[in-house]
Design a protein that fits this description.
The chain has about 130 residues and is mainly β. It has no helices and 7 strands. The N and C termini lie far apart (about 110 Å).
């Protein structure tokens, strides 16, 4: 036989073939890790890094766009949930970030069919009552 012709391979007779039981050590194969190209395109979701919120800075007074000064306890005009202007009292002022001043208020007017506990408004939009 020369090098270019393949050798003839003869199958083994049935008597020489050995079968292994399903759960024997020889039948258990190790799972190989998938190559990068075969890995799924998604990854396990991660929790985003959350920075804790900065504490509010409470203030004693604030000014609106017109320069009027408002203090705690002043009565102001606000838009009520039912869509009309209502009277409310300023409970506190707080600054979330520099230049972002807000006023929290509680209503002094209510309607029978509305339960209104209060709200907040930007200090620059305050209107005296």
């Amino acid at each position: 036989m020369d090098e270019k012709t393949p050798a003839i391979i003869r199958p083994k007779p049935a008597a020489e073939i050995r079968l292994t039981p399903a759960l024997s050590e020889k039948s258990i194969r190790t799972v190989r890790s998938l190559p990068d190209r075969d890995k799924p395109a998604f990854s396990k979701p991660r929790r985003p890094d959350v920075t804790p919120p900065k504490p509010w800075v409470e203030m004693e007074e604030a000014q609106n766009q017109a320069g009027e000064v408002f203090n705690l306890g002043d009565l102001i005009q606000v838009r009520a949930p039912w869509g009309e202007v209502a009277i409310a009292e300023i409970e506190n002022f707080y600054e979330v970030s520099p230049g972002s001043l807000w006023a929290c208020f509680v209503p002094r007017e209510e309607r029978e069919d509305w339960i209104w506990k209060g709200g907040s408004i930007r200090a620059e939009l305050l209107k005296k009552s």
